[in-house]
Prior knowledge:
By secondary structure, the protein is an alpha/beta fold. It is built from twelve helices and 14 strands.
Amino acid sequence: MVDRRRIPVAAPVFAGNERAYVLECLDSTWISSAGPFVARFEQAFADRTGVRRAEACANGTVALHLVLRALGVGPGDEVVVPALTFVASANAVTYCGARPVFCDIDPVTWNIDPGDLERRLGPRTKAVIAVHLYGHPAPMDELRAVLAGRDVALVEDAAEAHGARYRGSAAGALGDAAAFSFYGNKIITTGEGGMVTTDDEALADRVRLLKGQGMDPSRRYWFIEVGYNYRLTNVAAAIGLAQLERLDWHLGRRRAIADGYRQRLKDLPSLAWQYPLAGAEPSWWMFTIRLVGGGAGRRDRVMAMLAEDGIETRPAFPALHRLPPYRELAPEGGLPVAETVADEGISLPTWAGLSDDDLDVVVASVARAVAADV
Ligand SMILES: *Cc1c(COP(=O)(O)O)cnc(C)c1O
């Protein structure tokens, strides 16, 4: 039977102090970026991540842009980016006038492959962006080993990885600096919003200067360089603080959903997914399956069958070197692992409010679609 209920692939859950804090903003009239929730959110986020500094900003894309600018990335530089990620990971490099260099991924974790990274480094490499894809921590120790002895920054794109952990530390505390997103479908949300985290005080001060139009911190309305208006509003920060207070609840629900999928899909043929690294605790942002050997055509047909059952899914990210703006930068021979996972991946509904009944419906529908020889 076709179940006409719609199960979204992601949705926010506001079950804490969101409403109360937003009303505080309205009642106090502090709704711009000047307001007490911004600093409270930054401090709470830094504490939770285990870093000295957190700088809130307008979204995850500009968080990456701020990090790269603060690191001095500019024209003539290269930044290595895994080919399987959201397009913003590469766009932030392009905004700096630098060149993204695409790198293949590991077939087991789907994160940047340290072996391929070695081949992508060169005299112009200024930074490497380690994306914690779908909330799975990237192999940070192995990446550091590859970069040892080189003057190359290691940046985390932690947009999907709030609360994820790797060998005792939180995502956001694993590189030289990290960028988070609080878009509506992320682990925790402020609608639109972002955060930069780092232990490097000087870097954080640069981020702060750049996000506030380049204004001298000790002289109001005196601008010492060309900056941006990339600030977060007090209203968004109020929502973010309330969301952060319940991060562990969100993570627990997501872990239970991922466990449910893994348990109940494990006997289906030709199905794979991301396997966490040893010592990694993912945030389980999007539980993404791969229809091994089916190619993009079968992926699309299976997605259509799920849609008929009222289940919203999304394809895995397209491999960035196959998108129009980046085709010219595709390496010789392509990046076969990223291309295959991009073609065969489907993200299933994964969010804290997904009920056990919804999970049953999704599992049954996936089983049916996979069994059908489409
Ligand atoms: C969501 C996301 C971003 C961008 O965040 P926005 O807040 O949407 O600008 C960057 N990188 C990755 C990997 C993301 O998933």
